[in-house]
């Protein structure tokens, strides 16, 4: 029984990884269930055991991406200084988009969410849940005096994740852009934006 459950989970993960590669390379509209099944090396009918449709599969990928982002923020909230954790969560999200593919997957997710109302709702729901956890991390940092307590932390979470999305897109679109080379500038900008203003 355990082996069967494990096999089912392994197949599901194979499908998700194959779909991630396909969506990143060919885009959502250019990728069919048949393409994904072929890449996962399974029968097309087996796909439907795990996912009812390409839409359902895509939505699960978005949910898992956001769940991973929330987990990163949750782990960071247990370590001080909190500001280091905030920057760490952001850099982890930029470096590692979750599935074993390049950054094009996340830009495709953003593009499809902008055009498809059902996907947009899934994205917005996951984004809100992820940012709720991140806001708790920001609150801890504000309470500890590490970031400006006068900031609207909900708005800060939107701005910081917009910055993350932009840097993921830059990484996907510009082969000459190496985030690692810009890490010091990135960290300095975030610290200056969040830290309490010095009184002159």
Short characterization:
This protein is mainly alpha-helical. The chain is 74% helix and 0% strand.
What report would you give on this structure?
By secondary structure, the chain is an all-alpha fold. The relative contact order is 0.12. The model has no long low-confidence stretch (mean pLDDT 91). Helices cover 74% and strands 0% of the residues. The protein folds into two domains: 1-51, Arc Repressor Mutant, subunit A; 54-194, Tetracycline Repressor, domain 2 (Orthogonal Bundle). α4 (54-76) packs antiparallel against α5, α4 (54-76) runs parallel beside α7 and α6 (104-115) crosses α7.
Question: How would the blueprint of this fold be written?
Answer:
Layout lengths: L1 H25 L6 H8 L3 H7 L3 H23 L5 H14 L8 H12 L1 H27 L9 H21 L9 H12 L6
Helix pairs in contact: 1-2, 1-6, 4-5, 4-7, 5-7, 5-8, 6-7, 7-8
Could you name the key traits of this structure?
200 residues; Arc Repressor Mutant, subunit A; Tetracycline Repressor, domain 2; 9 helices
Determine and state the CATH class of the largest domain. Answer: Mainly Alpha
Taking the sheet with the most strands, its summary is:
none
Average pLDDT metric: 91
Oligomeric description of these chains: single chain
CATH topology of the largest domain: Tetracycline Repressor, domain 2
Look at the structure and name the CATH superfamily of the largest domain.
Answer: Tetracycline Repressor, domain 2
Strand content: under 5%
Gross morphology is elongated
Cα distance, first to last residue?
69 Å
Supply the number of structural domains: 2
Q: What is the CA-based Rg, rounded?
A: 19 Å
Structural class of the secondary structure composition? mainly alpha
Put simply, the count of helices is: 9
Low-confidence stretches: none
Please state the second-level CATH architecture of the largest domain: Orthogonal Bundle
Helix content: over 70%
